[in-house]
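A quick word before the example. In earlier lectures we treated sequence and structure as two separate objects. From today on, think of them as two lines of the same record. Here is peptidoglycan lytic exotransglycosylase written that way.
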Amino acid sequence: MIARHSGGALLAALMLSACAGGMIPPSADGPAPVRPIPSGEAATRPVPATPRPTLPVELPTDPALDKGTAAGLGVTRGPDIASLIPSGERARLALQAFRISCPTLMKRTDASGLTKGSDWNNACAAASSWPEASASEFFSRYFEAVQVGDGAAFVTGYYEPEIAGSRTRQPGYEVPIYRRPTDLIDVDLGQFSDSLKGRTIRGKVNGTKFVPYDDRGQIVSGVLAGRGLELAYAADPVEFFFLQVQGSGRLNLPDGGVMRIGYDGQNGRDYTGIGKLMKDRGLIQAGSMQDIMQYLRAHPAEGAAIMNENKSFVFFRELTGAGPIGALGVPVTAEATVAADPKFIPLGAPVLLSLDRAEPAGVWISQDTGGAIKGANRFDSFWGAGARARGIAGGMSARGSALVLLPIGSAARLVRP
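And the structure line, produced from the sequence above:
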């Protein structure tokens, strides 16, 4: 994934710690998410709206059912969606996003238990040539709605940050952005014990022992210097710190060009949210992103030490094609992609959101995941890059209802009589 958390959920994200014990943070391809708002900028004023009520439901009580997936949690057949899908740009972008998801979607094993790959064949075939001007009609013709669990949605926002950077080291650009080191090794513990299936650690070999990889403080102090791993250089260590937490971003180069970088691994150390550390120590009061960045800059030595208490360090690669790339393996689409928990929402499936904020209302495509995006009806909306994206994502914290759109006919085998 490229990153996930912001706005009203920002402080909570800053206070989260990743999994303990040296396990890789629980994300498809990135660290635990946070959405920084650059200092001096404010979130966009929200546009209020009235969300559509969730559907009444009796959740299954059978203890044999796996409540950790959508199929086990229970689904309720939704209303006819023809009148519920807003027409316009959101639907058009969602159709584009769905179209590029189809090749992977039709081959993917759905962890939610809601669909099979073949369920998507008809919709994907139609999407390939469907006119974007009537995108809302496409969704209403080829999909039916179900509500997963109680349907109560919580939506935050994320964006692609932009910071000042340079491809070469020069005055004003001296913070190294590193490629993934060749001695950073992933170990699948499930190969050694069935009880450890699904768990992975990262580290390096030292003699005959496998040991933890260098932590943030060691890397910032130069332990990787001289190995040819420098991909680029950032101008501001604070901005780069939060771009690392974000997992991808854009470097605005001195010549006016742009270099896009994406997540290419993490050192395997635990993620620590510095917001909680700072608030517990009385260093900040309100705990806003602006407060945190202002303190780090006003106290550079102490700020550097605080950032190093987050031992996690992220490595990058240059992105030269479309992107950023989400967990589905395709480029995410601004104002059409959401991150979701694939145990409850099929990756690639459309989702219809109705919230107490107007900006994210409509159809989105679940193309991404996130370390903090867990559980049914939890979403993180992607808004792209630039000031508008920062402003909306930075203040996004919306609640309402969510319907998952499944290919027509697939809901019949899911809904209990």
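Notice the following. Residues 3-13, 15-40 have pLDDT under 50 and may be disordered. We will return to this example when we discuss secondary structure assignment.
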